[in-house]
Design a protein that fits this description.
Length: 212
């Protein structure tokens, strides 16, 4: 286990607010992860280069990126993938619904915390977030949003889509959006598995913890 404590912990939380490790050990008052968190001064030249670019563009350098920074090319590729998918064709709400479904499937505590917060920011109703958290089908008025949830859930549960589900999804989403949907499921599954494996967890005051 590795700790982040004191002043460096405060700075870390401020600079990595969207994806930062926060597994708190109450006896030490420190966040703990399975992987040592590299300070900027500890990085080699290539690590520092990709880190600085990310800080100046997306601002996202925490969470699973604390693992990816060990492989700067992976760190950089994940940043590019994230930016590409964020640019569309899925709407922000559609992306968030997929991310919530994926985080819930993998029981990924920090990604769930981050995506619940992001979902509220783009106007997704708390009742929708709560339903997904309880492993229920959320009430969604928009057909594309319903399809995003249904496709993500089926892919993760069944390792693919049935012919009927595929046909319905392509009809509702269109081929390009369906490709983006599947790519988002895969990309965010990597995020969730990385955070879970290296025990990058949410802060103790997490307002939207995963339901048991």
């Amino acid at each position: 286990m590795h700790r982040v404590c004191g002043a460096s912990s405060f700075k870390y939380e401020q600079t990595c607010s969207s994806l930062a490790p926060a597994n708190l050990n109450s006896s030490w008052g420190c966040r703990m992860t399975r992987i040592a968190i590299l300070d900027r001064a500890e990085m080699n030249a290539e690590q520092a280069r990709v880190y600085d670019v990310a800080k100046q563009t997306t601002g996202i350098v925490g969470g699973p990126y604390h693992a990816y920074i060990r492989l700067p090319k992976v760190f950089e590729a994940c940043q590019h993938m994230r930016a590409t998918l964020a640019a569309g064709p899925l709407s922000r709400r559609e992306q968030q619904i997929v991310n919530l479904a994926v985080a819930r499937h993998w029981n990924a505590r920090y990604p769930w915390y981050a995506q619940a917060r992001n979902s509220l920011a783009v106007g997704i109703e708390p009742a929708v977030i709560d339903a997904i958290n309880l492993r229920k089908t959320p009430s969604l008025a928009d057909a594309r949003e319903r399809t995003c949830f249904a496709v993500a859930k089926e892919i993760l549960a069944n390792k693919g889509l049935s012919d009927a589900s595929y046909a319905a999804a392509e009809k509702t989403m269109g081929l390009e959006s369906l490709v983006a949907l599947v790519a988002t499921v895969g990309s965010f599954s990597m995020t969730c598995l990385t955070a879970a494996t290296f025990q990058i967890d949410p802060p103790p005051n997490n307002p939207t913890p995963l339901a048991e």
